Amino acid sequence: MVKDRIISTNDPEMRHGRKSSARKFDGYKTHTAMETDNNFITEIEVTPGNVHDCEAAAPLVDQQPEERKPDTVLCDMAYGTGQNREDMEKRQVKIICPVPTDSGRNGCFPKSAFKIDLDAQTCQCPAGKIVTEKIYDKKTNRLKVFVFSQEQCQNCPLLNQCTKSKKGRRTITVNQYERHLQEARIFQQTEEFKI
Fold it and tell me: Residues near 104 by Cβ (< 8 Å), separated by ≥ 6?
């Protein structure tokens, strides 16, 4: 499916969308801001069906009059991306939202099974080995990938649970929002979040 294909000559802004991998639709998504004291709807944002939910959060906050600007937003997991968390932090808005699930590919350990210390720029695997090689973004000099060596991985008893790579080693990618996601995962375990 082409991401931005025009699917209707009568409604050229309508797009293909998905609610899940199995549920497809044609049309739009509606995003609603509501204050929690009286359950009044304070803003509505409509996006084409192919726009990710998180892209509507900042406009919903920005369109609030100053006297109604939220200091906290509650939202579902689709709004919980790292970029959205950074956008809300810039607006001094606390976001209470589940972190998107972290599932491993091909039955392997998910990234959350690795201990990532962004300050020390270290990554420890479930077997206790610490990464030796790192790849940095050439433009920003920002850490992008932790690369475990073949020597570290080849005789590991957890190798088949860790990677299916033909190179026989695991890599862990981090993005510019990694710190926001780490903080959110920690917050997600607190009583404040669970209420």
Answer: 110, 111, 113
Q: Residue 110: give the domain boundaries.
A: 105-175
- The answer to pTM > 0.85 is no
Q: Are residues 21 and 84 in the same domain?
A: yes
At residue 42's C-alpha, the angle toward residues 37 and 45, to 5°, is: 140
* Element (DSSP H or E) covering residue 32: strand 24-34
Give domain status of residue 166, yes or no.
yes
Render pLDDT for 71-103 as a digit per residue (tens, 0 to 9). 999 999 989 999 999 999 999 999 999 998 788
Phi and psi at 32, nearest 5°, equal -120, 130
In the chain, how many domains are there?
Answer: 2
